[in-house]
Amino acid sequence: MFLDKALDEIGRKNKIVIGLDLTNDYVQISYCRLDQSMPDTVSLVMGEEQYNIPAVLCRKHQQEGQEEFWVIGKDALQTAKDGKGDLVEDLLLLVRNNTSAQVGDKEYTPRELMEIFFKKLLGFTAAYTGGMELAAIAMTLKSIEPDTCNLLREAGSSAAGSQCEIFFMSHQDCFFQYILHQPEEMWTQNVLLYDYQKDGIHSYELQMNRNSRPVVCLIEEENFPQMKMTDVSQMSDAQKQAFFTQLDNAFLEIVRNHCEGKFVSSAFLLGDHFTRDWCKDSLRYLCKGRRVFQGNNLFSKGACYGAREKVLPSTLSTTYVYLSDECLHANIGMNCNRGKEETYQPLLNAGTNWYDARRSIDLILAKDNTLELTITPVDGGQAKIARITLEGLHVRGNKTNRIGLSICMKNAETAEIEIADKGFGEFYPSSGRTWKESFVL
Fold it and tell me: Does some domain include residue 305?
C-alpha cells in the first residue's frame, strides 16, 4: 500500500497538463505539474509577460531532397519577412472552414497544418517542462463547434500521443475554473471579468447559488461593441483626450450597471487595451470595496486548471458545478450490484461540456435484458429513469452475459447510447448484435 502511494506521488510529479488559449491571431500556453498549485505561462521572453505567440506557421525554403523544416510564432514571421519561407496564417479559420492551404508546391489539409503547429508548440513548451509526460491538454476557443473540436482533437492527439487526453473548454468555463482555484475571499460574492478584444469588450459575471448542493454556478455574458478601440496614432492630443474621456465614461456606465445593487468581490481586466491613458474614473469606481486584477493569461490558466481537474479531480469538482448552455444539467448513472451490495455507477456528470461527455464501460447482465439509467438534474428538477431493452438478447441468468455500454451526448440535452453483446469468452461467443438508443435529459 505504501509503495503504491509512493509511486502515485512520483507519477504526479512527473506528469503535466497544458491549457491552450487558441485564437486566429495568437495562442497562449499555460502548464503545471499535477502536484503543482498554480500554472505557469510560457513567455516569448524569459522573465517578461509576453504570452501571445503568433498563430502562424512558416515552411522554410529547402533544397531538393531536404526534409521539411517548419517554424512558428515570431520566428515564422521573421523567416517569411526575410524571404526564406512560405507563411501560413489564419490557422483557426482554415480549421473552421475545413480549407486546405497551398504552401509552395504542396497542399496541406488543416489537420496536417494543426498537427505541425501543435508539435512545434509542445516542443517549445518542453524547454519549460523538462520533457515531463503530458497527461492532458485543454483547449479553449471563443466559440465551440463540434467539427472544429473533432479536427483539433485529431491533430492534438497525433502531436501529443495517444496517452494524452484532449479536452475543450469555453471561455466561460475557463473563467469558472480559474476563479474556483483562487483564494476563497476573492469569490465570496459575484465576480466580474471584462475581456477587451479588438471587437469591443466582452463581460462575464459569475454568480453562485450557495443554497444548492452541489453549489450551482452561472455566468451571465454581455457584449459591448461600442467599446471597440480606435487607432489614436493620428489624433491630436486634444482629440485623444476627448476620445479617452468618452471611452472612460462608457466603461464607467457598464461597470455601474454590473455593480449597483449587487455584491461583487472582485473583478478582472483582460487585454492590452486596458491602460491608464483612459481607464481612470471607471477603474476608481471599480476598486471601491472590490479587488481588481489586470492581465491577459486568465483563459489559458483556467484551461490548465480544468485539464488538471479532469485528470485528477479535487473536491471542488463535486462541490461546485458550472451550468452553461453547453453543459449537462443532470447526472447520468445506474445502480449496479457489486457482490451483494448495490452501488451507484456514474456515467456522465453534470457540468461536463456535452462535446466532451463520453464514457464506455463493460457490464454483466444478471437477471434480464433491461437496463435502467437514472437521470438526476442538479438544478432542482425531479429524477427520472430511462429504460433500455435489449430486444432479442437471451439472458442466461448465470452472469455470463457481458455487454459493452458507450454513452455520449448528441447535444446538451440528448444522450446517445450504444450497447454491444461482447459474449463471455470461448464458452459464449458474442452474437455481434448492437443496440442504439437516445433519450432527452
Answer: no
Is the preceding peptide bond at 214 cis, omega within 30 degrees of 0? yes
User: In this structure, which amino acid lies at residue 6?
Assistant: A
One domain, residues 254 and 352: no
Q: Distance (Å, rounded) from C-alpha 329 to C-alpha 350?
A: 5
Same domain (yes/no): 154, 190:
no
Residue 19 has pLDDT above 90, yes or no: yes
Same domain, 137 and 236: no
Comparing 115 with 367, the larger pLDDT belongs to: 115
DSSP state of 263: -
Residue 9 has pLDDT above 60, yes or no: no
Rounded CA-CA distance 56/103 in Å is 13
- Does 27 share its domain with 155? yes
At residue 366, the pLDDT reads 82
Percent of the chain scoring above 70 in pLDDT: 97
Across the strands, what pairs with 421? 403
Domain count, the chain: 3
Q: Grid coordinates 473540436 are at which residue?
A: 149
Instruction: Please indicate, yes or no, if residue 144 is contained in any of the structural domains.
Output: yes
Question: Residues 245-280, buried b or exposed e (16+ Cβ, 10 A)?
Answer: eebbebbbebbeebbeeeebbbbbbbbebbeeebbe
pTM of structure:
0.85
Q: Which three cell numbers stand for residue 57?
A: 506557421
